[in-house]
Amino acid sequence: MKPINVGLLGIGTVGGGTFTVLKRNEEEITRRAGRPIRITTVADKNLELARSVAGEGVKLTDDAFSVVTDPEIDIVVELIGGYGVARELVMKAIENGKHVVTANKALLAVHGNEIFAAAQKKGVMVAFEAAVAGGIPIIKALREGLSANRIQWLAGIINGTTNFILSEMRDKGLPFAEVLKEAQALGYAEADPTFDIEGVDAAHKATLMASIAFGVPVQFDKTYVEGITKLEAADIKYAEQLGYRIKLLGIARRREQGIELRVHPTLIPAKRLIANVEGAMNAVLVQGDAVGATLYYGKGAGAEPTASAVIADLVDVTRLHTADPEHRVPHLAFQPDQISELPVLPIDEVETSYYLRLHVEDKPGVLADVTRILADQSISIDAMLQREPEEGEAQTDIIILTHLTIEKNMNAAIAKIESLDAVTGKVVRLRLENL
Ligand SMILES: NC(=O)C1=CN([C@@H]2O[C@H](COP(=O)(O)OP(=O)(O)OC[C@H]3O[C@@H](n4cnc5c(N)ncnc54)[C@H](OP(=O)(O)O)[C@@H]3O)[C@@H](O)[C@H]2O)C=CC1
Ligand SMILES: N[C@@H](CC=O)C(=O)O
Ligand code: NA
User: Fold this and answer.
1) Cβ(160)–Cβ(299) under 8 Å?
2) What is the pLDDT of residues 189-216, one digit of tens each?
3) Are 30 and 38 in contact (CB under 8 A)?
4) What is the mean pLDDT of the chain?
5) d(Cα 424, Cα 435) in Å, to the nearest integer?
6) Residues comprising the binding site for NADP(+)?
7) Residue 154 contacts by C-beta under 8 Å, 6 or more apart in sequence?
8) What is d(CA 424, CA 387) in angstroms, rounded to the nearest whole number?
9) Which residues are in the ACT domain (predicted)?
10) Of 181, 292, 337, 401, whose Cβ has the fewest other Cβ atoms within 10 Å?
């Protein structure tokens, strides 16, 4: 059968992995797709590197635009990354009637509405399994496997770099900067690693999952984002003492008034499966009304795990490209004319439990003042831990875990607690989910 022709843009970590796996498993992939999938052209800025990965028999160019306009190319695989040239290339590819496969979550989280609308109009597919949780087929699960369900919430460890950093810091006591360098060397980190450590990459992925789960437009600008750079070793230690682990979670939850969409370090009970996801591994929990809780676990970054998702998309697109565009699974799972208006709630309206660390003077009455302030905001306490002050020490830490409350009530309580004379410095506040 006539091969389907693929143009690959960017032969770095994921592009290289895609090339290797496609070649290694060529026979099985062909049998699954129904026809050979051939990368006929590769565009990369570094032609020497491209030649060393692609070998002979593949056309090489440093002009990616010549690939997206090439009439011989059926599918464009965009693995350059970023919002700049990648956006122009994807839009141009769509304009030229090419299907697109991309791992670029940043691009889709920011420009997804425009890109999916253009693809829909042109009758082409934009497939992006690799963009969320790398090799884990979470897009497939959300778009197709769980289509009978009203999805209530999802929560995931969806950034391998930060999970790797948190694991190595906790288990080996290594410093942040050293572990980040290792994550970069292993190919996990984004070109700009602040995207990883400041939670932006996880927010891109959470944004995409929320749109598919709830049938709302892609709204990265409404997502609350907090990374791991302000996390302190003391809080990781106190959390452990109270039976919790801290993970950077992407959370999307349906509430009556709207959708919670947030990324932040989160305390999770240490016994839960998701609390034990270590290193660069990813895991996503999805709660559907019919199926209950489901958990997806695997490698969320790295050359071949991500290539696994890119190639699965290539197989899907190869199978479906002759199908009537109206009868394909919609990009965001719901029919485009039935996208919901349900708003994304501001962080002030989010409902969660909290971990608070207060640095206080060790004198009578402080605790009574703090508990009164919390009670005034209708916040009830679940657990408390007070560190015994060392010999001669005048100050100590109090750790408080609360039951569910609304973020704005917690903000008001924290402001009042910080104004107490006996409380020094800022109150450390982390969110806690009893998933
Ligand atoms: N690495 C991972 O584990 C994962 C990555 N992703 C996503 O996959 C995409 C690719 O990531 P990754 O492979 O890690 O990135 P790399 O930086 O390793 O690869 C990108 C490649 O594209 C090349 N490139 C840059 N600009 C152009 C251009 N204008 N024309 C042609 N080639 C160009 C780069 O060349 P040069 O180096 O010379 O600039 C490089 O070889 C990103 O969107 C990323 O977010 C998704 C999941 C996991
Ligand atoms: N930088 C990302 C790569 C995959 O999306 C991560 O660390 O998870
Ligand atoms: Na995936």
Assistant:
1) yes
2) 998 999 999 999 999 999 999 999 999 9
3) no
4) 96
5) 32
6) 9-16
7) 142, 209, 210, 213, 251, 252, 253, 284, 285, 286, 287
8) 15
9) 355-431
10) 337
H or E element in which residue 115 lies = helix 105-122
Whether residue 390 is predicted with pLDDT greater than 90 in this model: the reply is: no
Q: 3-class SS at 87?
A: helix
Distance CA 363, CA 369 (A): 12
- Amino acid making up residue 172: K
Name the 3-class secondary structure at 234.
Answer: helix
Q: Coil, strand or helix: which one is 127? A: strand
Q: Report the distance separating Cα 420 and Cα 363, nearest Å.
A: 13
Q: Are 406 and 247 in contact (CB under 8 A)?
A: no
Q: Could you give the 3-state DSSP secondary structure of residue 65?
A: helix
- Pocket of ligand 1, beta carbon within 6 A: 9-15, 43-46, 64, 79-81, 85, 103-104, 130, 134, 187-188, 190-191, 301-302, 306
105, two tokens: 């979550």
Closest ligand 1 atom to 104 CA: 43
Residue whose CB lies within 8 A of the most ligand 2 atoms, among 129, 139, 164, 196, for a mutation test: 196
Which residue in 23, 59, 121, 205 is the catalytic one?
205
Mean pLDDT of the region 123-138: 98
pLDDT above 80 for 378:
yes
- Per residue in 17-69, pLDDT tens? 999 999 999 999 999 999 999 999 999 999 999 999 999 999 999 999 999 99
Radius of gyration of the chain (CA): 24
182 CB-near residues (< 8 Å, 6+ apart): 164, 168
Inter-residue contact 11 to 51 (CB < 8 Å): no
In degrees and rounded to multiples of 5, residue 363 shows phi and psi of: -140, 155
Residue-range domains of the chain with CATH: 4-135+304-337 (3.40.50.720), 138-299 (3.30.360.10), 348-432 (3.30.70.260)
Q: Which of 285, 266, 287 is nearest to 224 (CA)?
A: 266
What is the pTM for the complete model shown?
Answer: 0.97
First to last CA, the chain: 49
CA 65, 67, 72, 73 torsion: positive or negative? negative
| Three-state DSSP class for residue 110 | helix
CA distances from 329 to 80, 90, 125, 318 (A): 26, 20, 10, 14
Place of tokens 């060397």: 185
